[in-house]
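Problem: given the chain below (299 residues), write out its structure.
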Amino acid sequence: MFKRILVPLDGSALSERALAPALKIGELEGSLVLLLRAPVAEVSVIPEVAGFGSYSLRNLTEVIEKARHEAKTYVTQLGQSSDKPNLKVESLVVEGEAAEAILATAREKQVDLIVMSTHGYSGLTRWVMGSVTERVIAHAPCPVLVIRADKPITRLMIPLDGSELAERAILPGLEIATAFGAEVEFFRAVPPVPLENINELEKAERGLGTQLQDSWLEAASDYLKRHVELAQRRGLKAKAVVRTGPAASTLLDYADAMEINAVAMATHGRSGLQKWLYGSVTEKVLRASHAHAMLVVRP
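Solution.
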């Protein structure tokens, strides 16, 4: 499924956390792993005359060439350090703004998966991977796996709400679980029946309100079990989990209590003039959870 994997790097140890997971995923199918660096030229700007506001660039061409050379050397050395004989690792240096360089490369190389870390920085001019990651997620032509810690993926949750959109995360999530030998938990939060509805039903027939809530829970469980069977046919350990409550908070509480360390979700990608927005539940999970996140975005 993931035959071409892109790993954006900024020269920091934090960004390099994405490398090992990407290589592990690539081992499943002997994938091509692309290591991308967008060079950042640290340009010296000095006043032409003390006390005046005009400026000149010192050795601009040399600085840019040095940045290109350092970027190429960096990704080449990382690629050569891979000890996975069944993988092909290719080093790329693409100039331009970080997020645009990543997206353009993903489209040009027909990438199936982007694996990137958060909060990497580079040099005096910083590449803030948090904001870059959000922009990549919003416009990526493929799933994006966001690595948030050095720990491997061991328990992966796939939240579902019964929609076709949410189900787009299933196959990519199972592929990630297969690569890491992780347990899979299909999760659904069922909203409680409104109290006024329960009261009306209870007036009509005692116990009818409780029956309605139970029927919602049973339907959710049956729905998830079908996906559990799919995961089990792939040799994965999987189970269905249904809880009552608001989607985002219920999911986060369960993930924290059960030490879920990866979540695979699908969402809409939306762009505004000032900020990048996702589906409300996905956004809350991204902001509040420290788990690795697989995002499958539908434009």
